[in-house]
Design a protein that fits this description.
The longest helix has 26 residues. This protein has two domains: 51 residues, Arc Repressor Mutant, subunit A (Orthogonal Bundle); 125 residues, Tetracycline Repressor, domain 2 (Orthogonal Bundle). By secondary structure, the protein is mainly α. 64% of the residues lie in helices and 0% in strands.
C-alpha cells in the first residue's frame, strides 16, 4: 500500500492563548489539559458563557488554578480552539501513515468536517470582536493549509485525485458546506462532503502505462 507523507508545521508549545512559551511543570500541564478538555465538553453542551466554576469542577481543579492558567474567559476559549485545531491537523500525519493517499485525504476531510461542526459552538465568541481572538483565523489557516496541501499532493501523485485543487479553496468549500442546521444537518453535511470528495476523484490523471 502506498503511503503519503505529511509534514507537520511547528506547533506553538506555549499557552494556547498566545503568550510566550516557557517551561511548564508536568502537573501544571496535566491541569491545563484537564481544563481544556472539560471546557471543550462544557462549551459544546452549554455554550462559551458556561460558569467557569463548572469547568473547574469537571476538570477536578480549583478556581485559582483555572484563573492562573487562563486569567480571562477569552483566554480559555482561544485555547480550546487552538487545541482542537492542533488535534485535527496532527491527525493528517497519522492518517497518511496508516492509509493509502486517496483514503487518507478522504478520511482527513471528514475529520475536518467534524472539527468545523464543533467550532460552530465557538463561532459567536470568535466573532465577538475581542482582540484575544484576532490571531485565530491566521492560526487556523497556518495549521490546516500545509497538511491538506501535503495530503492533496500525495493523493494526486498516486493518481487518486485531480491535481488542480488549492488546499485553501477546499478548506473554504467544506466550511461553506458545514453551515447546515436542523435535525438532519450533520447527515446532510456528510453527504455533501462525500460528493465533494467524489468530485476530487473526477479527472484524476491516470497512471502511465507500464508504470505506477
Amino acid at each position: 500500500m502506498t503511503k503519503g507523507r505529511v509534514t507537520e508545521p511547528r506547533q506553538d508549545n506555549g499557552l494556547a492563548s498566545g503568550r510566550e512559551a516557557r517551561p511548564v511543570r508536568a502537573d501544571a500541564r496535566r491541569n491545563e489539559d484537564a481544563l481544556l478538555e472539560a471546557a471543550k465538553r462544557i462549551f459544546a453542551r452549554s455554550g462559551v458563557d458556561a460558569p467557569v466554576r463548572e469547568i473547574a469542577a469537571e476538570a477536578g481543579v480549583g478556581l485559582g488554578t483555572l484563573y492562573r492558567r487562563f486569567p480571562k474567559r477569552s483566554d480559555l476559549v482561544a485555547a480550546v480552539f487552538r487545541r482542537e485545531v492542533d488535534a485535527c491537523a496532527a491527525d493528517a500525519a497519522t492518517l497518511a501513515a496508516e492509509q493509502a493517499p486517496g483514503e487518507a485525504l478522504a478520511s482527513w476531510l471528514m475529520r475536518y468536517t467534524q472539527f468545523i461542526a464543533t467550532k460552530q459552538g465557538l463561532a459567536a465568541a470568535l466573532h465577538s470582536g475581542d482582540p484575544a481572538f484576532d490571531e485565530l483565523p491566521a492560526y487556523f489557516r497556518a495549521r490546516f493549509e500545509p497538511v491538506l496541501k501535503s495530503l492533496l499532493e500525495a493523493a494526486a501523485a498516486a493518481h487518486a485525485v485531480r491535481d488542480d485543487i488549492a488546499a485553501y479553496d477546499l478548506l473554504r468549500a467544506i466550511g461553506n458546506l458545514s453551515v447546515a442546521t436542523g435535525p438532519d444537518g450533520e447527515d446532510h453535511v456528510k453527504r455533501m462532503v462525500a460528493l465533494l470528495i467524489d468530485g476530487l476523484r473526477y479527472g484524476a490523471t491516470p497512471p502511465a502505462k507500464g508504470g505506477g
